[in-house]
From TrEMBL:
It comes from the Bacteria. This is Pirin family protein. InterPro entries: Pirin (IPR012093), Pirin_C_dom (IPR008778), Pirin_N_dom (IPR003829), RmlC-like_jellyroll (IPR014710), RmlC_Cupin_sf (IPR011051). Residues 201-303 form the Pirin C-terminal domain. SUPFAM superfamilies: RmlC-like cupins. Residues 61-139 form the Pirin N-terminal domain. Belongs to the pirin family.
Amino acid sequence: MNPILRIFPLGFPWETQDPFLFCVYHLDHYPKGTSEMGPDPELLKGRALGNDFITKDGWRMYHGQTIPGFPAHPHRGFETITIVNKGFCDHSDSLGAAGRFGQGDVQWMTAGRGVQHSEMFPLLNENKENTLELFQIWLNLPQKDKFTEPHFKMLWHEDIPIIKTKNARIQLIAGTYNNQKAVPPAPNSWAAEEENLVSIWTLKIKANTEFEIPSTESLVNRSLYFYEGSEINIDGNTINAQNGVDLDSTFSTHLKIGSKNASFLLLQGVPIGEPVAQQGPFVMNSQDELQKAFEEYRMTQFGGWPWRYHDNVHEKEKGRFALYPNGNLVEK
């Protein structure tokens, strides 16, 4: 009757199960920004700019040279789901789409047959620190949808269901909880078909309380990532923070929270069950398909890069917004 299948440490990135490919958690306590939306240049000295993944002074530049983030890079064959709880992300892509999102917003991007995009983290505050907290999740596409048209969708935090109980707060990004449904995901997503039981939740549960994750009628892959808190107990098993748990979803999971408030990410879904051939930013079903993807990218650049800079950021005074490939502009 114990729902625990496996306990594992949270590394960088976090381990995932089919239909998920990748999950990473970023928490960076960036300093005050300059008028150019980056750290003071003096603070960049001694960093491996262009490949700065070692936490120094509480933050990283990643592949950014002057502004932290990930300049233009390609994807094919899967979807990215980016949850920005603190700070902001500036998106630009080869479709001409762009956006600035944060404060609980979620971007759902289907790479499909191929897209380039950049994800930069502008330091908008000049008078205080610019803390960034985000998850990026890669959700696979089945073979029949690998070459679907790329799609860019924003799930604004005002529209995402937030379910509050006496002890817990559930941010419902995908799936259902107590008969409440999430905002529909991107079309052609594995998550768009309800029978695939894809769930993406963030959970915050108060210290010294209890919470139950309901069971499913049939077994699906379910992973619970315990990334902040002290300890929890599941059916007599004490689990410390910075650990993940693979769970048998046919059993409900009863969580007893320890002496500190606890934060979790839950990923769940019916596995796609197809061969996965992955190299860097491309995910296909065979090595031959991977080689063809690289050849096509070299020839076409997936439509090229329409922006002036590969590390494109938007005007500093710009608020949250989404510019879609068809020219529609939504400002929040």
